[in-house]
Amino acid sequence: MRSYDPSLPLVSLHIPKTAGTSLRSTLVDWFGNDRLLLHYRGHQGEAPERFDLGPGHCVHGHFNRVRGIGALDYYPDTRQFVTFLREPFARFVSQWRYLHFQQRMGVAVPALDDNPTFAEWFARRAEAMTKGEDPFSFLAQLPRAVPADNPASAFDTDYVAVGIMEDYDNSVRAMATALGFTPPAGSMHINRADDPHRNGDPTADFPEWREPHQKAFALEYAVYEAGRSRMLEGLAKYQAANPPQL
């Protein structure tokens, strides 16, 4: 992990289905609308705008290295990143549900054109991981490929902070400390109103798939654990700087 340098731009990697809407709201508070730049496709699917980054800018949005639109494809000189991760199976199922929600809303989702079953979708994603990298994996959102023989190194360099969705508020506190900001007061997690499965456990309908997922996507789990370790390190720094009032 590296120390944040406010004289350089920061890229916030919004991995889909990891509370990016909540984080965006907090980033607006921290950076203001003038320094927070949003990196998302347009309504017609056009590629995100490439910004002329300056000191103190933060770019927040979806990147995908495997699709050729990774953070370093857009901003090759960037050396400061933050991101949030989510327990891999929960994210896998939530993404599956959300892609169908988008399709019902009229958004083109070519990967679902043949209406695959969950089993077929799982097999396709697992095969892609076996052959190389899966563009739907959260690993594709990271600026660099993670070495399979050293997943613990995933966040050793360039990352200022890593958050874990399952411990969202503490993650934001740790991130605030790393960036030199004040954490928001009260609950920080904003549920997306357009996600029909935002409440409860998204994996409840697929319990038999958890073990196969852990085997097929072992690298995801190892990287998730590396990120969780980094979050706990950041949380310890927050707690040391903010001891409880007795």
Number of helices: 7
Q: What is the helix/strand order?
A: EHEEHEHHEHHH
How much helical structure, as a percent, in the residues?
25-40%
3D shape: globular
Strand line-up across the major sheet: 2-3-1-4-5
CATH architecture label name of the domain at 10-87 and 135-191 and 218-241: 3-Layer(aba) Sandwich
Output the keywords.
Rossmann fold, 5-stranded parallel beta sheet, globular, 7 helices, alpha/beta, single chain, 246 residues, 9% strand
Q: TL;DR of this structure?
A:
The chain has 246 residues and is of the alpha/beta class. The chain is built from 7 helices and 5 strands; from the N terminus they run βαββαβααβααα. Helices cover 38% and strands 9% of the residues.
Description of the structure:
By secondary structure, this protein is an alpha/beta fold. The protein has a domain at 10-87 and 135-191 and 218-241: 3-Layer(aba) Sandwich (Rossmann fold), CATH 3.40.50. Helices cover 38% and strands 9% of the residues. The protein has helices at 20-35, 71-74, 88-104, 118-131, 168-179, 210-216, 218-241, and strands spanning 10-13, 36-39, 58-61, 81-85, 159-164. Strands 2-3-1-4-5 form a five-stranded parallel β-sheet. Helix 5 crosses helix 7 (218-241). The model is unreliable at 193-198 (pLDDT under 50).
How are the SSEs ordered, and which strands pair?
Blueprint: E1 10-13, H1 20-35, E2 36-39, E3 58-61, H2 71-74, E4 81-85, H3 88-104, H4 118-131, E5 159-164, H5 168-179, H6 210-216, H7 218-241
Parallel strand pairs: 1-3, 1-4, 2-3, 4-5
